[in-house]
Write a structure and sequence with these properties.
Elements lengths: L1 H10 L7 H11 L2 H6 L2 H5 L5 H10 L3 H13 L3 E4 L7 H4 L7 E6 L8 E5 L6 H12 L7 E4 L5 H11 L4 E4 L13 H9 L1 E5 L11 H11 L3 E4 L7 H11 L3 E4 L10 H8 L4 E2 L3 H8 L14 H5 L4 H7 L8 E2 H8 L3 H13 L3 E4 L3 E4 L2
Parallel strand pairs: 3-4, 3-7, 4-5, 5-6, 7-8, 8-9
Antiparallel strand pairs: 1-2, 2-6, 10-12, 11-12
Helix pairs in contact: 1-6, 8-9, 11-12, 17-18
Amino acid sequence: MQEELRHQMALTQIPQIGDIVAKKLLAHFHSASAVFAASKHELENIPDIGAVRAAAILQFCDYEQVDREIEYIEQHDIQPVFYTSAQYPQRLKHCADSPVMLYYKGNADLNAGKIVSIVGTRAPGDYGKAICASLVEDLAEHNVIVVSGMAYGIDIIAHRQALLHGIPTIGVLAHGLDRIYPPQHKGTAMAMVENGGLLTEFLSETQPDKQHFPMRNRIVAGIADATVVVESGLKGGSLITADIANSYNKDVFAIPGRIGDPHAAGCNELIKTNRAMLITGAADLLQVMGWDHNRPSKMQPASQRELFVTLDEAEQHILTLFTGKDEKHIDQLRRESYLPGSQVTSLVLKLEMQHVLKGLPGQKYQVIN
């Protein structure tokens, strides 16, 4: 087992072998140790490997660094989470560019039933701060894990509010676990290890360099069921995270703000361009995701036949995808409808609010008869 871990970590340290190529190697050889035991001929015969990458694997010899890192993670109760491990976040695993190795310190389940990422500007206004606090507080009774990036502003507010209300919260880092950036958040980070965790793809001694933040953002987007942008300008990491989440076919939500307010320009743009669904609080998020199973019925459900004539063409199209009492996942509806993912999410929400569809656990839906 220790030798396999050495080879797993070594595989991530070869410059010519990125995450996508590493996964191809693992798919072929089934273990990291088998990759390093392969011959030059075997390696070169794998598509996209070639002579240069094969040579890089065969010539790798920096096991001293690997062994130092293994010693460090053992001393600091850090869990190495490899791509083939059952502990690896399955939501993230489905993303093409997901990292092959993660390092985790904490107690929250990376494969919990409900995970939401909350992101936003590093310099929020009073409105954004209040909305973020309210959003997190209202998630407290719904067994949701809150993920963010440990940055100033909305990120750290989300983490601290989660801790305040007993919600597990995971911080994704753009550096190694031997430091916290910014250092002012070290106390919060220590508390998160006790109710949540800290997650990174970087070895210890890795600095929070500029290029690491977009890499962190893809984990923030990929590990969750949904991403919420609370407040953001037109440029910044929050919009990058939202776009990454959209590319992964994840649900993306944004809190609207005043027209002309630079703090709200990014969220308003996401909504205007159908890259995010408008929500005004946790109730909307919970309803769309099918996570609110205790809301009271506001009306008696009418028959499907009676309601069908009151629906517009797009809503009728969604409804025709259902047969009888069958259940359909939101991703299945997106595939079968051939409509943009954000439009399908919006249509399903409208149908649910009209009591035509019923939200079920796991983002599944069923027609109400």
